[in-house]
């Protein structure tokens, strides 16, 4: 009997690297606006642009990292990305200028996204297809745990010693990621590596992941909208910004529901299959967005947020499984990098759609619009499966 991958030391090393990478990102991101406005003398618009630099660069960096990882191996490319990440955070902490902050965030997007892409590809590559549902469900917890822990660490360090100290904490985290990558066992999977990065390889990998990628864009558009505008939306119906029953508590409810649902649903994903799991998840996610859109109070918003969390729980591993189904082994990391870029684009699109809809209409219509995108994603996956 094949030993489950989730019981191997190598898997938990990759899990730890992913958790630390997401923690590092969520430590620094909430601190940037305060740092830019209070220390560097910029305004909120400048702060927003500097924060967005990481996501913008990662859309290009993820497929590029995957392409290089397929050609030269996961470890050297991931380690190089981690070194770039350390350098970026040190630059951010050491040079207090707006230009340096923008450059550091761009570098951080390049390095951290490269490392994250290759760590995920490594986890997929070492997992037999029959175990990928369970493995990716457990692996995905590292993302949410990192996102949950990072802001707590960042705000505590910033409150005690200032924003620069929080950036140095990020540098330490990035150094720990590099150490884990260097200590990882050699890749056990043998892959056919392309002799060079031909444009045809990129197009082939892009086509292979396009359907789950478009679904990921729609879904992560919902996450981007929730994270960016839930405070504004709930304030419009009288929910306070802080306190136990506040708009801020919605983020905790979201993270907890994702983690708990992932733990409950992980064993069943391989049994029900990724297509059915994706369609069901998108339907639940869309329902949650509708409830949040029309909420009159905190409690109804909490129910909608729980549904959104439950919808997201199996969606990441299910869509990743769909993305790897049509990928040639030699282009696995490249394809996963393109797929991750689709999701990252959705995060940014959620903020753009939210801002535009709120400016012209209201936050309710922003959430309803993104809910409709989930229906479109269901149709795309359903039509592809009938071919």
Please give a structural write-up.
This protein has 14 helices and no strands. The protein is an all-alpha fold and 387 residues long. The longest helix is centred in the middle third of the chain and has 37 residues, at 199-235. The chain is globular.
Helical percent range?
A: over 70%
Shape: globular
Q: Assign the CATH topology of the largest domain.
A: Growth Hormone, Chain: A
- Portion in beta strands: under 5%
* CATH architecture type of the largest domain: Up-down Bundle
Largest sheet: none
Task: Give the secondary structure arrangement, pairings included.
Blueprint: H1 9-28, H2 31-38, H3 44-72, H4 74-94, H5 98-125, H6 132-161, H7 163-183, H8 199-235, H9 249-265, H10 269-272, H11 274-293, H12 298-325, H13 332-360, H14 363-385
Helix pairs in contact: 1-5, 1-6, 1-7, 2-3, 3-4, 3-5, 3-13, 4-5, 4-7, 5-13, 6-7, 6-9, 6-12, 8-11, 8-12, 8-13, 8-14, 9-12, 11-12, 11-14, 13-14
At a glance:
The protein has 14 helices and no strands. The chain has helices spanning 9-28, 31-38, 44-72, 74-94, 98-125, 132-161, 163-183, 199-235, 249-265, 269-272, 274-293, 298-325, 332-360, 363-385.
